[in-house]
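Record pair follows.
FIRST:
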Amino acid sequence: MGFTLSAIRAISLAGALLASTTLVSADAMIPLPGDPVLTASGKVSGTRLSSGVKAYLGIPFAKPPTGELRWKPPQSINWDGVWNADRRGPECIQVLRAHDINHYFGEEPTSEDCLYLNLWAPAEAKPGDGRPVIVFIYGGGGTLGSSGMANYGGENMARRGAIFVNFNYRVGLLGYMAHPELTQEQGGHSGNYGYLDQNAALKWVRANIAKFGGDPDKVIISGQSFGAGAVAAQVTSPLSKGLFRGAMMTSACNFGGTGMIGGVAPLAEGEKAGLELQKRLGAQDLAAMRNVPADRILALQEENQLGLRVSGVRAPSVIDGYFWTGTKEEAFASRHASDVPVIASSNGDDLDSARYPLTRAHTVADYQAMARQMYGDGADQLLQLYPAQTDADVQPMAHRAAMENGMMMNSRSCAEVQAKYGTAPVYIDTFMRKHPYAPDVRIADQNPATVGAYHTADVPYWFDTLDAYNWQRPTRVWTAYDRELTDRMAGSLIAFAETGSPVTPQLNWPAFLDSGDSRILKAVYRSGFLYTARDSGYTDIPKAATSTTFDVIDTSTMTLASQSRLVNANTFYPAFDVPATVPPGLQFATANMITGTTTAPDGSLAYPGISGLKGGKDFYDLTGGATAIPNRWGDYFGGAVDPVTGGLWTSGQYGETRRTNVSPGFSSVSGRTLAIRRSARVRPFG
C-alpha cells in the first residue's frame, strides 16, 4: 500500500513498498496482468492472492485528515505515478484490542492518516463485466472498528463472483466532533466527518468501480451495529442519493432518531461536546486543538467497549443541515432519502438481550418481581405474553421478550417507515445460529457455554469469513451445516446486489408486505424461521392487545392436550412434535379463523397460503396450491412453505410465528380450537 505521513506526493513502486513495510507485515506483492488500473485519482496496482483473487488494498479515497484537515470534510486526492495497493492502510486512531477477545485478528497500525479502502475482485474480472458490488461499513460504537479485520474481508465474496469493498472512516471525537468555530469555518455546519468519509468512499466506488469489473448501478451498502446506523445515515442523507441500489443493515436497522443504534442530536448539542473537549484540553481555540497530539484527544474520549470504562467526552451524530437536513423520518417524508430495497437484520441474542433487565432474572419469582418493577400495572400483560411457569422457562422467555421488542422491533419499524413513505421492498431476518465453539476454548469477552447468536455472530456467514475465527487460534469447529448456511446467506447478499432482491433458488425470501390496508399481515422470512412484522397499529409491550391459550388437537395421529400460547396478541408456540413426512396438501377445521399453506404444484413457495378462513366446522381442502377465502371479520393471515426443507411456516395477524428446535407443526390462530389434519417436521436454518 502506498502510504504518506504528511504531504501527498508522487510515489514510485519501490517507495510504496518501503513506506508500507513499516506499517504491516504482508506477503510479497504478486503483480496483476493488466495493471495499473487508471482511476479518477491516479494509477493503482494490486496484488494476486493465492486463491487467484485480485486484491487492491490500501487505496486512498481522500487526503489524510491531518493538520489543517483535522475536523474538516474529506478532501479529494490525486497522485502521479503508480500507487502500490498491496496491503491495507492503518485503522483510524482508536484504543487497541486485547489479544484474547473474540474479535482480535492480529495487530493493525492506528493513525489519523487512515482514509483508505480495500477492493477484492474475481480472478477473471475485467472492465465492462458489470459485476455486483458489495460495500461494507464496519461497526464499533462509533469509536472503534477497522476495514482490516479479517472477518470483514472480501476474498471469498470475490471468489463467488462479486466485487467487495470496505474502507476506513474517522471514529470518535476525531470523526464526529462539532464545534462553534468549525460551524463558522464550514459555512454553518460541523461534525459528522465519519459519515462524510463514508460518502466520499461511496463516491469513489461510483466513479471507479467499473474499471475493476463492477457495475456502478449494482452497488449495495451493508453495515453491522454502528455500521448499520451508518448505512441508515447514508440512506437518509441527500448527499448519498444515487450511490447505491440497496442497503443491508444488521443489528440493527434504525430509521428513527433514537435508540442504541443511530441516535441523532441537534447541532447545538454536538457543539457543546466540542466546547467540553476544548476545555479539557486547555486549548485556546480551534487552531490550538488541531495541534494537539491525537493520543491526548483519544485519552479524553468516552469509551465503554473492549472492557474499558472511560468517562469522557462523546461526540454525537448531529443534524448539521448539510449531511442531514432533518431527522431520518423527515428525510423519507421529504423524499431526500434513498428509496431503495432494504435488508433489516438482527440476531437472536443481540445487544438487546444484554441490555434488557429481565434477562438478568433466573427464577420465576425474580422474573415476576422484575416485570412488576419495570412495567407496573402492565406487568400482567407482559407475563401473559411471555409466561414463565418454571425456573427453566425464565431465560428463554426473557430473551425472547428482549429479541422481539428490541432489534427485531427496529427491523419492523424500518419496514413501516419504508412502507409509509417509499415504494421499495424491505426484507427482514433474525439470525439464530449459535457458533460451534472448540472444546474448552476460552474467550475473554464471551462464555462459549452460554452465548447464543451474539452481536456480530451473523457477519462471517454473510461474507463467508468463518475461517477468520481460527486464524490466530482455533476457536470454532465449523460444520457442514455452517458452510451450507454461509452459502445461502452469502449467495442471497450477492443476489441482492445483482438484482435488488435477496431471493435465490436456495432462499425464497418474501418481502415485508403492505397493500395499503393496515389490517393486512406483513410477513417476512428469516433464515430458517418465518416471522411476521407488525402493521402500523403495533404497540410495544406492555400495551399489546391480548394473549390466549388454546388446546391443540392433531387429528391425523393422536389427541394431545398441549397448552400453547399466543404471544403479542397472536403468536402460537406449539409444544408438541408432528409427523416427519411432508404432506401433499393440508386440511383444516376451526371454530373461527386459522392459517395454513401448502406447497404449490411445482414445489415452489406457496405464499401467502390462505387469507382468513371463514369460521365454522367444515374442512377446507387446500391441496394443490394457495387459496384465499375472505372471512366475515376482514382479518388476514398468511403462510409459507420452507423453500429448503419443505416444512410448514404459518403466520397470523399481529404475531410472530417461528420454528423451534422441537420442530413443531405450526401455526397462528385466532379462535378456540384448531384441528390439524396434516403437518410436517422442519428444522431451523440458523
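SECOND:
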Amino acid sequence: MSAYEQDQLVTKTSVILSKPDDWEKWLFVRKDTADRDGLWPYVDPGLSEEKLRKLQHEKPQEKPVWKFKKTQVSEEEQQDIDIEDLSAEEISVYNVWARKYERDEARWLQKEKALRSFNSEIARTIDVRHLDLIVDCADPYSRLTTLKKHLCLSVGERNHQLRSRYRAVCTRPRKANLDTWLDEWVTITRLLREAKMSEVDGNRSQEDFILSIRGLDDNWASTQLQELVKKDQRGEQYTSTADLIAEFRSYYRRTRPIASSIGTFATLGVASGTKDPITPGRSARHVVCPCGESHMFKDCPYVNYSLRQPNWQPDKAVEKKFKKLREADNVVAQVLRRTEAQLRKESSQSENKAQSVISMDDGQPVRRTTHCNAMLQTTAVADEAQPPLLTRWILDPGSNCHVTNTKGSNWTTIKKGESTDYVYAGGVLAQIEEWGEVALSVKTPTGQSQMKLTYVAYIPGFFTSVVGLSRSRPLGVHFDSGRDCLYQGKPSNVICLLQYRDGHWLIDDEKEQAPPPALLSVYATRYPVPKPSRDDRKPLVVSQQEAHSLFGHISQKAVAQLERQVDGIKVIEQPKAPQWTECEICVQSKLHKLISRRPPREPAERPFYRLGIDLVQLRERTERCYNGDL
C-alpha cells in the first residue's frame, strides 16, 4: 500500500506499513533512510540487544583540564586547576584535543538528531491502528523489533505464501492487465530467489514462464523453449527470469503494438479513468440539486427533458440557478455539463435508431473459411500521401467479409479477433484485431437512412473500408451496376443509391472528413511513399543578424565561421551580426549583479525612526535550545 506525497517539483513515494505483506518493502525504505546517516547498526531489528551498537556509549567525553598537566597533581589540586595554569606546550596539546573533541561532538550530535528524526519517521509511516504497538517504545530499535514480532511473517508462513503466489502467476489470467502480470512474475521470482526456494533452482522458473506464454504468442514460446532445452542438454545456464521477461516485453511491443500499448497505458493509469469527478471510490454520490431536491442531475427534469410531464412548468428562479451553475468553473458545474452532454448523445442515438435501418447481412458470424478480399485499389498513385478513398466505404462484389480500417463513433465491438482470423487482400495477409458492428449513413430514394453491418473485421492500416456484397446475398440484396444502386428482391425495390468514382462504387454518403491521425500513421508504416528525389536539401539562407539569434546569440567571430563549420546553411553579410554591447539580450545575459535604485518604502523622518535588532540566544554548551538542538 503506497501513499504519494507530492510537492511542486518532486514526487516522493513512502510505503505505509498496514499489513504483513508490506513489511519487506517498508523495512527496505527504512533501512535506506537509516543507511544514509549510518544509523542501521544502531537500529537493526535482526540483531540481538547485546550485539547492537549503542549511540550513547559513543558520545565523546570531555577531559578535565588537570589531565593535560605533565606533572603529578594531587586530588585536592585537581578541582582548582584551570587553563591559565597550563604551560605553553600543555595549552598546545589541549587545543589539539579541543578541536578534535568539537568535531567528534558535532558528528555525534548530528547522528543523535538523525536518530530522533528516524524514530519519528517510524511512527509516521505505519498505519494508525498499529500505533498502540509502539506507544511504550521510546527508541527506534524497540519500535522496529515490536513491529517485527507482530507484522513480519515467519519463515514457514512466508514460504507458503510464496508458493501459492508462484502457482497463481504460472497461469496467465484472461482479463488481467499484461504488464501487471509480468511485474508479478519479476517480483515473485526475486522473492523466491531471496528465500532460496526450489522453485527457482536451475532453469525451472524460466521454463514455467515460457509455458505460461503459450497461447499468447506460440512462436516466441516455441523458440525460447527450444533454446532452453539445448542449453539444458549442454549444461549451460539459461537467461535469467527477469531478463527473459524484459525480452518478451520488447518483443511483444514490436509484434503487437496496439495490444501492448493498451496494456501499458492501463498500467500507467492513462487508459482508464473515472467518468464522474466527484464519485471517489466508484461509489454513487448525490448532490443537492439547484431545484432543491436531493437527486442526481440526470434525474432532474430541468436537465433531463424526457422526465418532464405534460403539465410540468419550470420555475424561473431555478432556471437562473442552473444558468449560473453552467457558467461556473467548479466540480459540480463540470458534472452538470457532462450530464447534459451525455443526455444529448443518448437522445441523438435514440433518434438515429428510430429511423429505418437497412440490414446488409443476416447478423451471423462469418463462416470458418479463409476470408478472401478480391478488391484492389487501382486509383492510388505513388506521389499521394494517402489514398483518395481512405475514409470511404467501397462495395466489393468479390469480398465475403466486411472490412474497416478505423473505429469511429458508430463502431460497436463484438469480440476480439483470434490468431486464425485474417484477410487476404492483393497478396497481403492482414490480421483481424476485432469484430464489430457499424452503422453507415447512406442515400436512399426517399432520403438519408442508416445501413447496419454486422461482424465487420477491423484491420488498422487497411487502405479502405469494404462492404462484402456476398454477405448480403442471403437477404436477397443485389447490385445493379447500370443504375448504380442496390435493390432487394425485385429490381424496382431500390434500397440504396451508390456513387461511382475512379472505378469503384461508394456506398456511404459523401463526407468531407479528414482521416484520424492514428489511421494515417499506420497507413504510412504499411504503405510507405517513395522519395521522389535524391537531391540534397537546399541550404538555409540567413543573414548574420538572423544567425546571431538563431544559434543562441553567438559572437561575430562565430557567425563568420558558421558557413564553413556547419553543413546546410548559407550566411549573407547584410545585415551584420551585432556586438554584444548592441544586443539587449546579450547585455542582460552578461549581468552579474542587479543593484536596486528604488527608494525605501517609508523614509525615516527623524533619527532612530526604525531600528533593526538581531536576537541571538546564547546558552551553555550542554544546554538545549528552544528547538532541541545542543
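COMMENT: The radius of gyration is 39 Å.
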